[in-house]
Design brief:
The protein is α/β, with parallel strands linked by helices and about 210 residues long. It has ten helices and five strands, in the order βαβαβααβαααααβα. Helix content is about 40%, strand content about 15%. A five-stranded mixed sheet has the order 2-1-3-4-5.
């Protein structure tokens, strides 16, 4: 649970909480902190809820919005599609639940809800391809990624190794990835089954110029 302390006291910089639903996102943002010159003006704190359900993530976002300057909530939509397919029709569906959360934060300028469709690996793929192909599963997006990064692995060792971590490996292609992701536009629940990588907005929010 987030600690109710003043993270800005004495530091003179903005502090961003980034709520994610997977370890790979945590490692990616940790490597961002390693390579980007952020620490003099901002600090980012990637955080993985103990429980990955949308309701638990929403609770953590609300808690952190009271503590940090801004909160970024990053969602992999393939998980929601899977849960929607398994939904038995009792009560609120996963997509209806997400819609409620989007509306809850609509006027909250401190919270930024970003969607990757289907997952983080699609964002990586955009470093190498200008594609709008819709992947319903992360595994298929990962297969396409491996055509460009044959040794890709979803492991902490691979993501964080000192000589060639995931962020450093992708950094030469990052400007192109942001350009490709921007062209895909923003995620909407009216047409959810379209390729998106809204993670590119993190660079704008943190003031990382590319």
């Amino acid at each position: 649970m987030a600690r109710k302390t003043n993270h800005r006291k004495g530091k003179g910089k903005k502090v961003y909480s980034i709520i994610v639903d997977g370890e790979t996102e945590v490692w990616y943002f940790q490597m961002m902190k390693r390579h980007e010159k952020l620490l003099s003006r901002v600090d980012i704190k990637p955080e993985l809820p103990k429980k990955k359900r949308l309701s638990e993530q929403f609770k953590l976002v609300n808690e952190n919005a009271k503590i940090y300057d801004e909160v970024i909530w990053l969602i992999d939509f393939d998980t929601i599609i899977k849960e929607e397919q398994e939904f038995k029709g009792n009560g609120e569906s996963p997509i209806q639940e997400l819609e409620r959360y989007i509306k809850a934060f609509f006027n909250n300028k401190k919270v930024h809800l970003l969607v990757n469709m289907p997952c983080l690996e699609f964002w990586y793929l955009l470093h190498f391809e200008a594609t709008g192909r819709y992947f319903s599963q992360c595994e298929t997006a990962t297969s396409s990624l491996k055509k460009h990064v044959s040794d890709y692995q979803k492991s902490q060792k691979y993501y964080t190794k000192r000589d060639n971590d995931i962020y450093k490996k992708l950094l030469p292609f990052q400007t192109k990835a942001i350009e490709n992701a921007t062209k895909l536009g923003k995620f909407t629940l009216e047409n959810p089954k379209t390729a998106k990588a809204e993670i590119y907005q993190v660079f704008q929010l943190l003031g990382i110029s590319k």
